[in-house]
Amino acid sequence: MSEPTQVGWTFLRSRRWIGYFAMLIVFSVACVMLGNWQFERRAEARAEIDRIDNNYGAPAVDLADELPTLEAFDESKQKWETVSVVGEYVGDPFLARNRPSPNGVGSDLIQPIRTNSGEVFFVDRGWVAVDGSEATSVKVEDLPQPAGGEVTVEVRLRAGEPKIPGRTSSGRTVASIDLHELAKLSGTEGESYTGAYGMLISESPAGEHGLLPPKPERDEGPHLSYALQWYVFILIALIGVGFAARQEYRGLNAGSGAVKEQDRRRAERKTRKGPTDADEEDALLDA
Fold this sequence. Notes:
This protein is α/β, with parallel strands linked by helices. The chain is 41% helix and 21% strand. The protein starts with 14 loop residues before the first helix and ends with a helix. A five-stranded mixed beta barrel has the order 2-4-5-8-6. The chain has helices at 15-55, 63-66, 75-78, 132-135, 179-185, 223-252, 257-273, 277-286; strands at 61-62, 82-89, 94-101, 104-115, 120-128, 150-159, 173-174, 196-204. The protein is elongated and about 100 Å long.
């Protein structure tokens, strides 16, 4: 009787297995890219935590010192910086609609203040319970009113927001805190700060204002665990492909000495360990 043909590991060069390896490579590259993306998200979150730690409770500096030009603002360094503005609120407020808060969806009250040096700076004076459908009809006198005359205002710097595609402004309601648009609507183009606006902290003398936001949470999120999970998926895929290759090798080389030796060693290890619980249960059932 002739010996069975031994295939060995040559089946790994077949078109089918080359396809498996190609899919494994594509899957691994995708997992690496997704894992690195999560690492980048974590780095951004940690950078935001550093900005909060360094800037949120820092002493106030003069607005002109922090923003030497109307367009100046470096979000990576100046976000949450506390600045002091001395001037007078001018004109009517704008309502940045569709702003969520613990009390529901409303609008942010955006008021321009003309500084003593002549520039115009926009201040977010808090959240008010005016939703998008009400914003166009609300009366100015029904909104929180700032103090008249000269005021000293402390705010935290935030970058102006981009336009929202498909959403337009109507009257004094705006879709986003787009500082260029606010300058145009208020007739202060060329004299308004367009790099950053301020979130109100306090003002003297004090006026009415909306609900002020709480301090942001120092939370980097689950990005590290998500990133590691993508690399674990690569390891699982490698183990799965390796196991499948081993099983196919054993099936194609069932009569080879190598496979027989593997089976003999496995049987010896099983004998040394003694019968398993399953084996004992099968024996009892047979008896």
